[in-house]
Specification:
Length: 182
């Protein structure tokens, strides 16, 4: 058999040369500081004006792989409150939003992104001493037998009509009172 020659279509043009590799292929974070980026986006973040091109009313949940560019991650954080911007605001799908949130939290844990700790004011009523359970211990009363230390510990006999009502409700369950006389 004769050796097989690869099939080549005849064309009058030379095959197009592949595009030159991007100078930002290895270091994508340098693109965010480049003049090319500022001409394209200006002062807006990357996601500004972004609308995913998809078929139908529901956007697909698969997008590109998440990148680990800290300056890019910083664009998805609100500069005023430090909150991660919601996908309805940025246009990112929920799957990538979860990965983005995870990457931002990881970058904050490693100290690569700033982290704003929220200020929580302590409620005043939790630390007041204007109620009876908090304050100075009262002086000991005259320690007569049968007197309580605090006045609210003293036994108070319930009203007779309340006792009669309870006895009437639970008469089938009460034991008969034994006569104290022998």
């Amino acid at each position: 058999h004769p050796p097989q020659v690869p099939l080549r279509l005849s064309s009058t043009q030379d095959p197009p040369e592949p595009p030159p590799p991007s100078p930002y292929q290895e270091r994508p974070w340098e693109y965010l500081e480049s003049e090319e980026y500022h001409l394209l986006y200006g002062a807006d973040p990357v996601w500004f004006g972004y609308r995913r091109n998809h078929k139908g009313a529901i956007p697909p949940q698969t997008t590109r792989k998440a990148c680990k560019n800290v300056k890019l991650l910083d664009q998805f954080i609100c500069p005023h409150s430090g909150v991660i911007l919601h996908p309805t605001h940025t246009g990112v799908c929920m799957k990538q939003y979860k990965l983005l949130t995870k990457a931002i939290e990881q970058a904050q844990d490693h100290g690569l992104l700033w982290l704003q700790v929220p200020y929580v004011a302590a409620p005043r009523e939790d630390f007041s001493n204007q109620h009876p359970a908090v304050g100075k211990t009262p002086p000991a009363p005259a320690l007569a037998p049968g007197t309580p230390w605090y006045p609210w510990y003293e036994w108070q006999q319930p009203p007779a009509d309340a006792v009669a009502r309870v006895r009437r409700l639970y008469k089938g369950y009460l034991k008969e009172e034994a006569d104290p006389s022998p």
